[in-house]
What we know:
By secondary structure, this protein is mainly α. It has 14 helices and no strands. The chain has helices spanning 5-19, 24-48, 51-57, 61-81, 92-101, 109-117, 122-147, 157-187, 189-214, 222-249, 254-264, 269-280, 284-310, 317-328. α5 (92-101) crosses α13, α7 (122-147) packs antiparallel against α8 (157-187) and α10 crosses α13. The longest helix is centred in the middle third of the chain and has 31 residues, at 157-187. The termini are far apart. 43% of the residues are buried.
Amino acid sequence: MPVDPYILLLLATVGLAALFPAHGTAADVASGASTAAIAFLFFLYGARLSTREALDGLKHWRLHVTVLACTFVVFPLLGLAARGLVPVFLTHPLYQGLLFLTLVPSTVQSSIAFTSIARGNVPAAICAGSFSSLVGIVVTPLLAAALLGSSGGGFSADSLVEIVLQLLVPFLAGQVLRRWIGGFVTRHKKVLSLVDRGSILLVVYTAFSEGMVQGIWHQVSAARLGGLLVVEAALLAVMLTLTWYGGRALRFGRADRIALQFAGSKKSLASGLPMASVLFGAHASLAVLPLMLFHQMQLMVCAVIARRRARDPLEPPRQRADERTAATA
């Protein structure tokens, strides 16, 4: 089973925050730097997303609508159903984090990578992940306001304004400036990717530092973490099954079903962590814990599935053509 090296960095950052949490002035500086890092992250997201590619991807609208429905309808419904597991399996704060996990957008990079390994529809996976990230900037905060309410770290109209200023405005600024800086962003993709990841590490350190200062980690036991892992494994299994067999019921071809399975069953750590920092404030550390665990779980499981799908026989040309005709009918 592969272990994402970045997860190890995230865990090391959590350990650093546990041993050396920021206090006083240092906490204020870390919070300010985290806010700036989140805004810069979403500025880069906007600068990277090609509007033309997104518009071209609309031609495969049935697949993209299905991915969005899985991400922002089916996932949240399962999250709401998990409310019945409190307090037997989950504490209320862990459930809030699990519910938030079901609201965040799908991934882009890993969905593309696994779709490619499994010989699926890579362009569709690119567009589906991009659409999900774009829609999530608006939909995730609205869903959080509706489903988490005041229990989600004091969510209010002020929180929505903060989301707009800290996430949506930088994203739109990146889109507007893409015409002039898009080439630079593309040429320095690797360097800016390191900036992305470093920014997220800063967000994690700030969130878990606040959690240590608040003393909220006394609310979590090993048994509760075990219960959370069991619930998340069941959640992932349900979504992987629904996306694969649901794609068959909708008469998608094999390549499209692969893209649907990987894009429709995943949740983005890169988008979710900054959003949680804005939405939950001092309670963000417990809120992002389910997302961090689910992220590693989905990588491990989907890596195995992608390798097995790669060994499947490809569809005969006649069958692919028939399914494409049925899908557009």
